[in-house]
Amino acid sequence: MKVGCIGLGDIAQKAYLPVLTALPGIELHLQTRTPATLDTVAAAHRIPAARCHTTLDSLLEQGLDAAFVHAPTTVHPEITARLLEAGVPTYVDKPLAYELADSTRLVELAEERRTSLAVGFNRRLAPGYAQCADHPRELILLQKNRVGLPEEPRTMVLDDFIHVVDTLRFLAPGPVDRVSVRARIEDGLMHHVVLELSGDGFTAIGMMNRRGGSTEEILEVSGQDSKRQVLNLAEVIDHKDRPSLRRRGDWVSVARQRGIESCVTSFLDAVRTGVTLSARDALATHELCERVVLEALEQASYGR
Description:
The chain has about 300 residues and is an alpha/beta fold.
């Protein structure tokens, strides 16, 4: 199977390439416009020069069976559209695009071409979070915080908070009837944002504080007098009478802990078996992110 990896930044090097290069039966091709990066990454993974490309045209000439897009978000629409038009099943590191219209266009293009399009919402397959889907979920709380990183609202929501949005949607035990957004924006930069989703018998709250004093991710699901807590995707604590802690095993890779390995293998398995993957559900997450951005900006304008 010929697989292309487009974009060789941190997420590709730290998360995806270690998985892709360890899989049997994969002829991996790399593409980036930066020759020095291409040479360094290829040497680290013993990928021959014949499988290294500085243009998308050269990569597409190889007759790819599948592709992973890890280039900057600004070029996702252009790259993804070319892959889909060539009939290449495509996995895109979130988000599909910064603008909802571009994301919608890509999903529609994939459907027109009857070609798989998947978005890298790895937390759905992270073991700790997947286990929470089997727990009572009357109340869901997820916070993903960072230190000293206020950012332009659309960039912050679509590049980072989107993980929180998608996880809340994934764990919500029923249809969402009400949506509430609160945010703090100063001098054009978003400091924090809170999203609340609620429906019959449940409430899901997601928060991100870019001046939170700590880099952390904490998920709690509770109901029926029990609570499950996941700390930084690595430690699972069950609270019922006496807390019990389960830590990530010493030999469990970060890629497996964070769901990256499962995302890669499930996507490639679908390609091998001829299953066409739809990005419609991923688009619903992008639509909710658009609502978060617009409502946050509207609140900021009222506060002036």
